Amino acid sequence: MNLIDIDADLGKAEVFRKVEDFLTEKGFRISKVDQTRPWGGFFVLDESQIREFRAMFFEDVTLSEEQLEQKLSPKFLLVAPGARLSWQYHFRRAELWKLINGVSGIVRSETDELGEMKQMQLSETVSLKQGERHRLVGLDTWGIVAEIWMHVDPENPSNEDDIVRVEDDYSRK
């Protein structure tokens, strides 16, 4: 499915520019860009475009009309080669991930003990449960993962502060 032409040797700024160009070309409005993460960064898309986002990247996922009217935080995670997100979990959300470009690994476990790292498959939806420990891992190239948050309580949606880091390569709390 590699939707974006990204060479393995491109720098962070160029990768972000290519992803931004791709999203704009596809008609998505970007509400936030964060290139400050030590592992890469992310794009948050306009919440009102969740139907288009789901149709393009999560066509295999059925969401009810009620779910589609909730905040689902459509997002793209960009993980650099050799980088890793923290070993983490969330109290207020489950997540859906789909690798749409590049190569990435995923580690998951029901406990704080690290599971085995498995290579993600392009176009395969990964469903992470609320409280499930997980980590996105950059392998040989930039990995680009589409993400939807499934909030446990739509009246009190999750946010970027809803991260419990069990382990982190960058000494973040």
UniProtKB/TrEMBL annotation:
GO biological process, one term: polysaccharide metabolic process
Keywords recorded for this protein, A-Z: Isomerase
Keyword Phosphoprotein: no
MF terms in GO: isomerase activity; nucleotidyltransferase activity
InterPro entries, per database record: Man6P_isomerase-2_C, RmlC_Cupin_sf
Domain of life of the source: Bacteria
Domain Mannose-6-phosphate isomerase type II C-terminal: from-to ranges: 74-168
Protein name: Mannose-6-phosphate isomerase, cupin superfamily
Organism (species): Algoriphagus aquimarinus
